[in-house]
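Render this sequence as a predicted structure.
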Amino acid sequence: MKQQTTLEERFGKCPYATAQSLISGKWAVLILLYLEDGPIRFNELLRKMPKMTHATLSTQLKALEEYGLIKRVQYEAIPPKVEYSLTDIGKKFHPVIAAIENFGNEYIMQMSGGED
């Protein structure tokens, strides 16, 4: 019997599995979307996220940073100032975000009875 490969085994080998792993967090796409406008501080990003806890945002940001999609810059100031922004590879996600937006709009239109 053939054994199925897991997503983790395909990471870095299959482009679809790799992309799915990178954006697998519930809020990853929205975080990347909000960072497209430039650097943003943690609390500002938290205010933009619907019903997200501090811990969840922190976890998502750490994962995206670990994957190399975002960078965290801490400034020596009192109080401490931390900003998050997209890396060069994170900026390359823009066409994917645009495609997700287009699909989402078409889906909403179709499901609301606006288009066949």
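Summary. The chain is about 55% helix and 10% strand. Helices lie at 7-10, 15-22, 28-35, 42-48, 54-66, 88-91, 94-111.
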